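Researcher: Structure prediction, please.
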Amino acid sequence: MPEPFDAVTPASAGAPVSPVDPAAPPTVGVEEEFLLAERHSRAAVYRAVAVVSAARGRLGASHAVPEVSQAQLETVSAVCRTAAGLEAEILRLRGGAAAAAAEYDCLLVPSGTAILGRTGPPPVVDKARYRAFVRRFGPLVHNQGVNSCHVHVGVADRDEAVRAINHLRGWMPLLLAVTGNSPFSEGQDTGYASWRAMVWGRWPTAGPPPYLRGAAHYEQLVEQLVATGAALDPGMVYWHVRPSPHLPTLEVRVADVLPEPAVTTAYALLVRALVGCAVDAVRAGERAPETPDPLLRAACWQAARHGTAGTLPATHTRDCAPTAVGRLVDELWKRVEPHLSRYGDDHCVGDWLSEVQLRGTGSARQRRVAERHGGRLQAVVDELAVRPPGIPPGFTPARSAPQG
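Model: Predicted structure follows.
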């Protein structure tokens, strides 16, 4: 369960400054959450306290943070503007975190759920905020050790950012469909493309955002949610897209953690372009379709269940007609391509979307690996695990930490 991005580090991906050059790309940054797996059994293991400490020593204190489960680690990127800079940062963070995990006989696994074993909590990481979660929400906290990818895009004007959400919310089901990476949980095939989305959706404030009239309306809703007790604070409003509580960014938080740095980079650039389109629409006075909340939530369930197979309601349109996912991807491409081309990001994102349409998402990849190895899920963990820089397979860790 992520803390508010901007509460973790003021110098991270969500901390843009207004560019002097108006043609400069908007800032972008990424938070990635990972599973810690014991390297022999490949099951989830509770060693986050030691591993996060080691990762901070390698990456800097602001770039590696704990999550609610002791079987998780989160990385927080620096502020980036270019595709090359973002991918290099993601590679740096993953490499450093994987090396820290290796010190304690762990694998760093980019999967939305624990493929083997249970992530918990309990036990939760020993922080006041997480202990408050347990007191407030009880068993709802159980098994919330799921891993997502959050993308922050700089938007200077808060009212503009909130109104842009109305133009983004209809695209959330499709973004979830193309980023599913959690078919297995606790040794079983769930039948879902994103089981993480189902687990995370238990929170009372999780899911698609409502249609918002502006910044004042957003602040009023957040205040009311906190007053009901459904959220501890504004940072616990877990909508798929939201304005940062403290920084001038929009945060899109609908995706599973993705399997490869290049895929994470392409997805983040796609989100940046989509946010740019939404801001342009706000400035042009375009009215976003007021897709009913229940339909939007149902479409997100459909995306989590089936991924890119079948159809989804076209929730970015007024009629919301059932549409093949491949066609929706084509419509998304037409919308974002001008923004992508402006910054030279079109080939990176286009290649990834083509690959998704041809071979499926991370969930399809996990299932192919399992099938290739006769259902042996340890092979799926091995396929996904981030390789520490300079450390070959079968490494011997420098030290170990006891489980728990």
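Model: The CA atoms of residues 122 and 142 lie 6 Å apart.
Researcher: Thanks, that helps.
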